[in-house]
Amino acid sequence: MRTRVFVLWSAASALLAVSLAAAPLTDLPPSTSIRGVAWEADNSPIAFAKIRLRNVLNGRIQSGIIADAGGRFVFEEVAPGAYLIELVNDDGRVLAVGHTFALGPGESVATFVRLPRKAPWFHGFFSNAAGLVAAAAATTGITAVAPEAVPPVSSAR
Q1: pLDDT for residue 65 is more than 70
Q2: Is 104 within the bounds of a domain?
Q3: Rounded to whole angstroms, what are the CA distances from 39 to 52, 54, 98, 102, 137?
Q4: Can you tell me the mean pLDDT for 1-14?
């Protein structure tokens, strides 16, 4: 009797092992991941940066994570879609936004987010001076200025 139970148990175990081995791996949901790095403007990593994953199709925040000491972060088991990475401060204010990317079933994406360079206070102060002068001249009725050394072009010639 013992031998018969052992034989039946062995046969059932072998049948189960064969059926599990023959099962297609496509029945398992595909694993997706997003890996990235948070950098300063000078390309040094931002230790323990606060990172958010935003779905660009609906605008919702999908997940948030804190990077490691090397600025690296990983989002696991993310649904397929279009996303971007946001670097935020402690109050949740966005400091930088990464590139938009698409994630398909079973795909892994590598990305990054980098803080912008800080511009000096006078950046842009003089950048549109010519436009301001032209606008002020146009409001007073001046539409063109001709240099004195070059005679104006007339249609009579």
Answers
A1: yes
A2: yes
A3: 15, 18, 11, 21, 46
A4: 46
> Is residue 9 over pLDDT 70?
no
Task: Report the CATH number that the domain containing residue 108 is assigned in CATH.
Answer: 2.60.40.10
Q: Identify the domain containing residue 94 by its residue range.
A: 28-114
Q: Model's pTM, two decimal places? A: 0.59
CA distance 89 to 95: 7
Is residue 69 a part of any domain in this protein? Answer: yes
Q: Within a 13 Å sphere around the CA of 25, how many CA atoms are in the beta-carbon half?
A: 3
pLDDT of residue 137: 62
Nearest to 108 by CA among 70, 74, 152: 74
Please choose, from the candidates 25, 68, 75, 19, the residue with its C-alpha nearest in 3D space to the C-alpha of residue 52.
75
Question: How many domains does the chain fold into?
Answer: 1
Residue type (1 letter), 38: A
Q: Are 62 and 84 in contact (CB under 8 A)?
A: no
Quote the mean pLDDT of the chain. 77
Residue listed under structure tokens 């409001």: 139
17 vs 134: which has the higher pLDDT: 134
